[in-house]
Write a structure and sequence with these properties.
single chain, about 300 residues, alpha/beta, 12 helices
Length: about 300
Amino acid sequence: MGYPEGMTNLEVLRAQGLLETRLQPFGLSVRWSSFLSASSLIEALSNGTIDFCGGGGTASIFSQAADHVFVRVAKEKYTSPKGQAILVPEDSPIQTLADLKGKKIAFDKGSSAHYVLVRSLAKVGLDFSDIEPVYLTQPEALPRFYRGEVDAWVIWVPYTATQARSAYPGRSIADLENIFGDKASVEVPTYYYAIPELVRDYPDLLKVILEEVNEAGTWAKRQELEAVQRLAEQHEIDPSILETLHKHSGERAIIPIDDQSLTALQHQANTFRDLNLIPERVDVKDGTYSLQTKQNWTY
C-alpha cells in the first residue's frame, strides 16, 4: 500500500490497522510505504513495488503518457476547496493572479499543482509562457520559498493553510475555491490506483480494500465535523463551513469513477498535450487504465 503524505483516508486506514484485520482471512499482510508525490506512487505501482495507492489525478495523465502500468479504480467524492493554494511571501507585492506575470513560480512538474497553475493563469488571460516555471517537489521548494528564491509556490495538503501548515511561511492569493468554484472535486480529483492483476484476478480483494478506504474516509469526516463543531461553539469559524461538513459527514468518502470525472480528466490531458508537456494525446477512458463500475463500497 502506497500513500502520499497528507492523504487523510490512507493515513487513517494505516493508523487504525483495520485493513490488516480484514485481509487476515486471505492470508495476507500489509506493508505501507510513503512517497513524495502521486507520480512516484504510480511509477512504483507500475514497477511492482506496491499494489495499491492513492494520489492526484493529474499524475496519472503523465504516467499514462509514459506507458506506466496501472488502473484507476475509484475516486474521492470531495476535494477540499482549500486543499491547494498559491502562496507568495508575506511581504510580496503580488496580490492577484495577474501579478504572477514574469514571476518565478515553484511547483511539482506533472502534479495537480501544475494543472492548478495552468488554469489559474488562464483565468486572468495569462499563458504558461508568461511565467518562469521552477520545477521542484514540495520538500525541495520549501527552503527556496523561505529564502525568497521563488516568487510564488503552488502547494497541496499538508502544506495548505490548515493546522498542519501553520508553521509555514506565506499567504494565499488563490485556492481551489477561487479558481474552480464548486467544480473543484471534478477538476482536481484524487484517485485510487491498483495494479492490473488486482483488478483482473482478485476483484474480491480489491473490494475489501476499497471498503476499508471508504470507511476510513467516512470516519475522518465525522472527526473533522466534531472538531469544527467545537470551534463553531467558540465562534471561530464561518458557519457555512460547518453546514457543508454536516451535509457531507454521512456520505461515502469514495465513489466509482464516472464519465463526468473522466471527461474532466481528459480535458486536463488535452491541456497538457496542447502545451507539449506530454508527447501525445492519451485516452483516459481507455478501459485498460480506468475501471468504471457501479460498485458501492459501503458496508
